[in-house]
Model the fold of this input.
Amino acid sequence: MSTHDEPVDIVCGLTKFYRYITAFYEKYGLQKYVKLAHAVNGCYWNESSCTWMVTTVNTKTGETHRKECDVLVNATGVLNAWKWPDVPGVSSFTGEMAHSAAWDTSIDLTDKTVALVGNGYVVTIDSCTSSRSVKLTLHNRSSGIQILPAILPKVKKVVHIFRSPAWVVTPFGNSAPRPFTDQEKENFATNPEAHLTLRKHIEATNNGFFKMFLKNTPECKMARKQFSDQMREVLKDDELSSKIVPSWPLGCRRLTPGVGYLKALQHPKTELVQEALTQVTPTGVITASGREFDVDVIICASGFDTSFRPKYPIIGPGGQDLRALWADEPKGYLGVAVPEFPNYFTFLGPNCPIGNGPVLSAIEAQGDYICHFLNRIQTENIR
Done:
């Protein structure tokens, strides 16, 4: 990589996205409906009033609050409980640590030697008491792939520690979005049907890619060869390609549109270590082969508790705690409801299509479904 233009563009893109979300939040006055910096402590069903009591704490002041509601919607999703790597010595590190899910904006990476741990997500399957049940443990979704090119312009060096290859889909990651003309924007603003047609076209195109995830289909074989060839063409190094290009079919692990990642791997500042992190020392990290690296900063792009068990008490009728009920096997209805927990709805619950297509489509469908319930409860005076 001769210049740092590409990583800088990534940072600019993220800044623009943040500004867009902030502007949207302010434009529609959402602040009166949202409480930031509040953590949920527990949710409790009141049988006599048929309502939920939600207790929260202000993470800045420590002040606690109680809120009663007729319907409780849990929209925390799957990746909501991050954690540091489960290796010895994490608390002994004397430098600075950051996690992709709880980024510390005060950390200055200028001229620092950084250990970047993780490049995607890994799924491990453990048997449970039921023969039909599995327990999934995932690591963060491709954030390491996004972080590496973004931090490269500032740092002195990056020791990139990862265990497994990842599919980096270059056509999506490296293609610039098509700018819309002022005339097109005006048409979308005044002609809802034209805007809907565009949205349907984009969604249908994305959903049409699903055939390449079906084992041994022509689409699967063609896509695997195409993506492998494209990755090798960018990497231009057989040894590097053997570390990065997966040996398994597409869909066994998430496709990652890693803008600038493959080029960042070849940068002189980047040192690749394809091993597991086994220990953290006061001054650095140690990998599986015993190699030790002294670093100033450790960035963890892995580590989440992604079980469906709630992270706080959700106590339903009869004192049933959802954490206990879902300890071995989570049981839900279409990913949006839980047996024997009335007026309680979830997004992306058990058995949802989280990793096999555009997740926003599933969220929108579930949101519509929940709203139908709310409409019936309101209009038919259902208890």
